[in-house]
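Hey, can you fold this?
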Amino acid sequence: MPQNHTMMQFFEWHLKADGEHWKNLSKMAPKLKEMCIDSVWIPPVTKGQSAEDTGYGIYDLYDLGEFDQKGTVRTKYGTKDELLAAIKVCQDNGIQVYADIVMNHKAAADETETFKVVEVDPENRENVISEPFDIEGWTKFTFPGRGDKYSAFKWNFGHFNGTDYDAKTGKSGIFRILGKNKDWNENVDDEFGNYDYLMFANIDYDHPDVQQEMIEWGKWLADTLNCDGYRLDAIKHINHEFIKNFAKEASSHRGDNFYMVGEFWNSELAACQEFLDQIDYQMDLFDVSLHYKLHEASLAGRDFDLTTIFDDTLVQSHPMNAVTFVDNHDSQPNEALESWVGDWFKQSAYALILLRKDGYPCVFYGDYFGIGGEEPVDGKQIAIDPLLKARCNKAYGEQDDYFDHPNTIGWVRKGVDEIERSGLAVVISNGDEGEKRMFVGEHRAGEVWVDLTNTREDSVEIEEDGFGVFPVNGESVSVWALPDEDTN
């Protein structure tokens, strides 16, 4: 019986830019494995605009903290050697490593070039609001610190289809680059008319040389890191035909076990389903729909009908393709997609992703260890640890739902013979104290179950007919199970 798999997003937006992150991952790998984390999604490993850049303002795809470029050898997170060492330590501890790859844009070019553009309306990028004119754009990437090592490819304005700054006039806007066969890519999200353009110099995936270079880079990076998979950033802005080809090429190069998950940030389930169809299910997607349901539930309190929590979510419609999460670096406070799940509901939200049979759950570093910056947030390790242990040791077997009350829901995992003392009963309330009478199996009669969250000090004795009456405090979650033998 394979153990349940759990991912951790091993970074948050406000990590200190001290170059220590890869070393910290090496140190913490054994502890993560102990907490039943068996994969980590690490932040972008490639050189950004500066030593402080989170990695999403990407400069050189081939510089993993090896070359003196943009005022630094290391990235925000450390050097290439420290990165490779951290990946090996993780793998030696039974933890897979998924690298975050940013393929939508490039930033901090080495030189400007003059070329023709039209300005477009930011609210509707199909709407041209100027005559063609010349701008001086930051689009020439020559990588003087790296030269031709690993790749001789140099980027110029012909490899991009949009930019946001004219160095000649100091004007900012969204400028579509003109040229033969040059336009926004069509196979992208249709928000703002066409959402190909996101930021900086926008990579043109209709350009055959670009496609070839990026696919070759994808293979090179996986080989160089010897990583176990990729998290693909901002894919609703990238030609989905390219994403499909990139994923197929990476899988055939690294083998079918090379794991990929995409950030397709769209809360509409139909759009996510359509995208999975378009890319032939070559990767999983983060369940953005579920994240927003959890956020809504945390805002609405007892006015939210908990029986609907999984309606219109990816984990309900495509359980084998959903990576479930509560929060991430973009949804954390003061960030681009802020939609932070409130503290009072956080443990319940994690129970909903960690203790059910469907989805591949991802625990956020910021939730577990805390968030830094000017408005720090404490970590919730004490609330999350019991759920991780329960996922590891208890959350197996058939699942029966008791979603029969808008403010108090529950479910049972029946357990499996292969994992001793497995099985559990979960009850969540977003209103008053409550209880659920749930069936855990006649063979359980006489067993005494305890609340693994330590919220309730009482215990539940399973009745002769295999039912138990499982209580929960108001606005809380309780996870009832047979205690591990060493806790008796």
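Oh, and this one too while you're at it.
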Amino acid sequence: MFPVIGIVVLILLVFGGFAFTGGNLTPVLHALPHEMLIIGGAAIGSLIIGNSGADLKALAGGLGKVFKGPAYKKQDYLDCILLVSTLMKMMRTEGPVAVEPHIEEPKSSPIFQQYPTLLKDDTLVHLICDTLRLVVVSSGTLDPHAVEDVMDNALKNHRHHALKPAEGLQSLADALPALGIVAAVLGVVKTMGSIDKPPEILGAMIGSALVGTFLGVLLAYGLVGPFATRAKTVIESDTAIYHTVKQLIIASLHGHPQPLVIEAARSGVDHGNQPSFAEVFDGMRGR
């Protein structure tokens, strides 16, 4: 909702402010489609040149995140703590073998099936299952620090790939002012070809050419740049739940008491999504 409001405010205040101060919008609106065709075409072409099909698909997904916002809310973080805590408690009380069916077939696991939102996130499910599989096959003899290193590498790799849409948008934002200049130069070339026209016609043509520069800068700093920032913020927010998983598993492997394990994970959650200590323990008692 807020991105849409921001776009409306941007357009109204930029063009409305121009008109309010005596500017004539007619030449701007007349030139806008042609300049947008050149700038937009150059932008799309550069994206195709510099990215693979998978990267372009991810870029479209990044734009979707700008408008959808973070995927995980407070209840999802509570569910994540309950899910991993249940698995770690089972491993501690019943042994690693008891957990094996759940991590080998998570979609068939009655534990995972209690949390359908989390089960849809393949990255989260693989992070849990792959890490616990290491513990199971080692019969619980792994050094927790070694497990933490493995999880850190997995999280670093995921973050690198997850941020590509935001980086692509930022690269596009950086290029748009120059692409606007390209459109403006073409407009000047067109004007020079009509140098024998009356001054009023030449003035309108030069004004149309300058719309290209204006549009490139506006798109870069008013739309695409903020889109990139917003996409990065949302992606970073969505990856925070993986760090919650890591805190729960590592603290449990260190043999800390369950209240400390839960607090280690809960305290690392953003305050807006952080479940209370009582909510977590009420959820644990209900299982």
